[in-house]
Amino acid sequence: MNGKLAGGRIAVMGGILLILLVLCAGCSTKTDSSPLAAATSGPGTSLPSPAPSASIVQTTIIPLTATPVPNQVYTDPKYPLTMNYPQGWVLNQPGDCSLRDYGRTTCNIVNFYSPDNPAYRIFSVDVDPSPGSSLEDYFNAATATLSRNYAPVSNLRPTSIYHVSGYKAYRFDFVKPDNSVEIAVFTITPDNTAYIFTYNTMEDSDFDSMIKSVNITSAAAGAA
């Protein structure tokens, strides 16, 4: 009886030991002891940060500044006059001397035509080598003739003292019966030569730059 009891105890204890061995083996298989696991999951270690995304750099497009187109220079072969005119404009030198609509026989030395085809803008220069009167009388007679030739004529602006190449001048802006506009500027230089500048439309930047660029040399002015 006692032998059977002792054998039974030994069998029970053997079974318990076998169960413990199986449990210990299971625990060892669940633990990852590889160097990679130790490096990535051990205490006090940090995972590598993801690569930073590329930053977006905003570029500013700077528009190109247009280079101003240089003017062309006209020098008259006979009279002491030089002036600028815009690139693209065409000049011709008629040289004809005839009676004008302002009542004087003058020589048309040069015309400048804009490229605005077919509605050309025309800047003309006439010369009267023998005006025979003062600037005031010459201007008054010219504007009176224009008013008769284009009656009724509308004066666009009060007649004003003007200056061309430093010389006193008078300007007359008027509208003809056909509604076309004309500007006429009269000056007489100290050597007693009259210059008449006309423009066949309203005042604009081209007219301003051309009339302001006029340079007329005068021997009489230089001597004075």
Can you offer a commentary on this structure?
With 224 residues, this protein is of the alpha+beta class. The protein has a domain at 80-223: Protein Transport Mog1p, Chain A (3-Layer(aba) Sandwich). It is built from five helices and twelve strands. The strands form two sheets. Strands 3, 4, 5, 6, 7, 8, 9, 10 and 11 form a nine-stranded antiparallel beta sheet that branches. The termini are far apart. The relative contact order is 0.12.
- Give the averaged pLDDT, no decimals: 80
Largest sheet: 9 strands, antiparallel
Question: Would you list the SSEs in sequence order as H and E?
Answer: HHEEEEEEHEEEEEHEH
The CATH topology of one domain is given as Protein Transport Mog1p, Chain A
Q: Tally the helices.
A: 5
Overall spatial form: elongated
What percent strand? 25-35%
- N-to-C CA distance: 161 Å
Query: Which structural category fits the helices and strands?
Result: alpha+beta
Count of DSSP E strands?
A: 12
The poorly predicted ranges are 1-6, 27-47
Q: What percent of the residues sit in helical stretches (DSSP H or I)?
A: 25-40%
CATH top-level class of one domain: Alpha Beta
CATH 2nd-level architecture of one domain: 3-Layer(aba) Sandwich
